[in-house]
Design goal:
15 helices, disordered N terminus
């Protein structure tokens, strides 16, 4: 990937990364196996700085070595945050190196893995570039605004053999693990229904063009997305979560959590093959992703599923009872289904468990608990639900061919063009 705004000297530097591809794979593996794993954080706003960086700082066998963000104040803040945390731990308080352009970070041979917590439209392009540069990747949810992009990421992860961890941290929570084990064990009997509930999106967002703030690389922030005039509501949270140029909204941005619990609990990993539903797309303001959705789905086995808005939860119903998994709690009928359930207090450090698993996977001691195939399955449901709502038609999914059948216009919505000169 390259951008026309790069100066010749930087272009030459980035092109040389291709020649280092094979070397990077083996040096990263060797370093990760013996020494502290060097991490680079790409996208260091609230999610990364207040969550992911804090979680990774708890592990002695990794080094938070670099931060990258088009907002200068963010990268400066996180660099100092890392230095202060290490000083408090009695370690050398060296600030993390700072970058505006993620490609410069990826060129560093001493960076073993990257943690990607950018706006959604950058997740997959950076993931692909990182894997090709020999870095293992931790990618926040949702995966991307395009199913075709997702499939390309899976292809590259498989080809390069890099570790991929999806940022669905609930898999590290004790109560989620227990409840999903109950479902997979068959104690509910034959499943008769599945219900997934996610908070809705939001309308609004003021369209007030303004000068680009000092210290912000808006061109880099936009990247492969369509060129739009700068305004605060576009680039600052929660704006980009609800703008279709960058995201499918909370269908994927928040829906990824309960949809991943669904994927974790199903005895057989699969996605529904039919989608039909309603929802609201705001007509005024910046925000234009689907909200207030009510989608009815059907699996190939005939199992019905609903995907609606409300309090975040996943409910499995079977012939012998039901179990509902929410943030920090589980409920069941009969209550005896929860006999032996662990205390819920581990939920508070579930991110730490998830990051620990990623580091162990880099060292070859474990498999990532949220691999690329899981990420794609949950993203598929949110994207196909979005397409069903936007078209107002029933969407039929062919899991073997991985495409929408019988509706060429809907199938075309599986892809999004990248703004030139960016490409996957």
């Amino acid at each position: 990937m390259e951008s026309s705004c790069i100066q010749p000297s930087r272009r030459a530097l980035l092109q040389s990364a291709t020649a280092l591809f094979t070397t990077n794979i083996f040096t990263a593996r060797l370093r990760g196996a013996n020494d502290r794993i060097a991490l680079g954080f790409i996208g260091v706003g609230g999610r990364s700085g207040d969550g992911l960086i804090v979680d990774f700082l708890q592990h002695d066998d990794c080094q938070c070595a670099a931060v990258c963000d088009p907002f200068r104040d963010r990268r400066e803040k996180r660099s100092q945050q890392i230095a202060a945390a290490y000083a408090k731990q009695g370690k050398t308080a060296t600030p993390a190196a700072m970058y505006n352009d993620f490609r410069e970070l990826l060129h560093r041979k001493d960076i073993d893995a990257v943690v990607i917590a950018t706006p959604d439209h950058w997740h997959v392009p950076i993931c692909i570039a990182a894997a090709r540069a020999g870095k293992d990747v931790y990618v926040e949810k949702p995966l991307s605004p395009s199913l075709k992009w997702n499939f390309k990421a899976r292809q590259v992860i498989r080809k390069t053999g890099r570790v991929f961890q999806y940022g669905t941290q609930q898999r590290g929570a004790a109560h989620v693990r227990f409840a999903c084990q109950v479902v997979r064990s068959g104690r509910l009997g034959k499943l008769t229904a599945v219900e997934v509930v996610s908070p809705s999106g939001a309308p609004g967002g003021k369209v007030i063009p303004a000068p680009v703030p000092e210290g912000f690389d808006y061109e880099m922030w936009q990247g492969p997305a369509p060129m739009r005039p700068y305004c605060d509501g576009r680039c600052l949270q929660p704006g980009h979560y609800h703008i279709y140029d960058y995201s499918v909204g909370f269908l994927g941005g928040w829906g990824a959590h309960p949809l991943d619990v669904l994927d974790f609990g199903l005895p057989t990993p699969e996605v529904p093959v039919e989608y039909e539903g309603t929802g609201l797309v705001p007509k005024e303001g910046l925000f234009d992703t689907v909200m207030d959705w009510n989608v009815k789905c059907r699996f190939a086995s005939g199992l019905p599923m609903t995907f609606t808005t409300g309090n975040d939860s996943t409910k499995f119903t079977g012939a012998e009872g039901w179990i509902r998994i929410a943030r920090g709690s589980i409920q069941s009928e009969p209550a005896s289904l929860l006999d032996g359930a662990p205390p819920i207090d581990r939920f508070a450090v579930m991110g730490r468990n998830h990051t620990r698993n990623f580091l162990d996977a880099i060292r070859g001691k474990a498999q990532p608990e949220s691999p690329i195939d899981c990420a794609i399955r949950s993203d598929l449901i949110s994207h196909l639900s979005d397409i069903a709502v936007r078209t107002g038609r029933k969407i039929t999914w062919n899991p073997e061919k991985e495409t929408i059948t019988g509706d060429k216009a809907a199938a075309k919505m599986m892809n999004r063009p990248l703004r030139k000169p960016w490409k996957l």
